[in-house]
Design a protein that fits this description.
This protein has about 130 residues and is of the alpha+beta class. It has five helices and three strands, in the order H-H-H-E-E-E-H-H. About 30% of the residues are buried.
Amino acid sequence: PHCTALGKVLLAFLPEIDRDRVLASLTLEPMTQKTVTSLAALRKQLGRIPEQGYAVELEEFHLGGACVAAPIRGSQGRVIAAISSSLFASRAEGDELRTIAREVVSSAGRISVKLGYVPSPVEMGGGARE
């Protein structure tokens, strides 16, 4: 979970006690030279995800690959799943990445609503935050 966008989203939205337990059990093995292998750096990334609304992985799992993931919420508001879109890392820059992030966040929001989640007024105006 430390080197995928889906894994990072799911970790970021776990209750703190559960997240700490999972993080303590991880070895943070490098899959590529870009994989985050520092627990402090991973915690910093995870801390930004709820505020940003999505997670990004750039060549951390496979060289040349990138991924954007967003949380799916159930009727009680808890994150119960995530969806993602993969792309070539060479296309994961600037506007292209922001466009994909907006689409992934929007799709996750629509799925969440179908599952009974009622978004807050702030989320209704949302989309991916930059």
